[in-house]
Design brief:
It is globular, with a radius of gyration of 14 Å. It has strands spanning 3-7, 10-13, 18-25, 33-39, 46-51, 58-59, 68-73, 78-83, 92-102, 105-110, 114-119. The chain has 120 residues and is mostly beta strands. The protein starts with a strand and ends with a strand. A hairpin with a 6-residue loop joins β4 (33-39) and β5 (46-51). 0% of the residues lie in helices and 56% in strands.
Amino acid sequence: QVQLVESGGGLVQAGGSLRLSCAASGIIFSTYDMSWYRQPPGKGREWVALIRSTGNITMYPDSMKGRITISRDDAKSTAYLQVNSLMPDDTAVYYCNAKKIQRGIPYNYWGQGTQVTVSS
């Protein structure tokens, strides 16, 4: 059974920082690209970061560059998202995603999300 469990969310003041974690089980973690998405209240889900399975390629949307860092620890089967200089607009449920294509078959898994609330 595949599980992705996010943690580290909570209530934080504007200007603060958070480090979110995504612990995976039931998959060979090192073979998956890991991403973070978020869904603000009343809005759709948006992508915020990607780290390739090799670990040496990271990608971010332009709107997030400079404030966030994605990383992974394959030995712990865990991905991380560091978010700095938090703003009220960062309030959202943050989800991690594990994805790969193997022999033409897509594998795509989601966590249940962790709430981040930024107060002004």
